[in-house]
Amino acid sequence: MLRFMSIPNKEKFVKLIEECQGSVLLHLPDCTTLDLKSNSAARQMLKLLPCEGCSLHLSFSDPYDSSAFLSYMIQAAHG
């Protein structure tokens, strides 16, 4: 599971979700889980979150998908 505290570029973040091979699961505080890849309403809610101060817990059904998100955050830290 990866935890995101900020999303510097939401459009790129959503594009990464759409390009994933497997499911991208958002774990909510009430213990529910939403698949951001297949749930367009959940992706729209994600776009409304503030860029800073959010706390997103994501997990991936395909382990290779997590590396794209790690790369995204590394690039954001350097850019």
How would you describe this structure in keywords?
79 residues, alpha+beta, 3 helices, 42% helix
Proportion of strand residues: 25-35%
Counting helices, strands and paired strands, the structural category is alpha+beta
Percent helix range: 40-55%
User: Could you give the order of strands across the largest sheet?
Assistant: 1-4-2-3
Q: If you had to describe this structure to a student in words, what would you say it looks like?
A:
With 79 residues, the protein is an alpha+beta fold. The protein contains three helices and four strands, in the order E-H-E-E-H-E-H. It has helices at residues 10-19, 40-48, 65-78; strands at residues 2-6, 24-27, 33-35, 52-60. The chain has a four-stranded antiparallel β-sheet with strand order 1-4-2-3, with no helix packed on it. Strand 2 (24-27) and strand 3 form a beta hairpin. The longest helix is centred in the last third of the chain and has 14 residues, at 65-78. It is globular, with a radius of gyration of 12 Å. The model has no long low-confidence stretch (mean pLDDT 87).
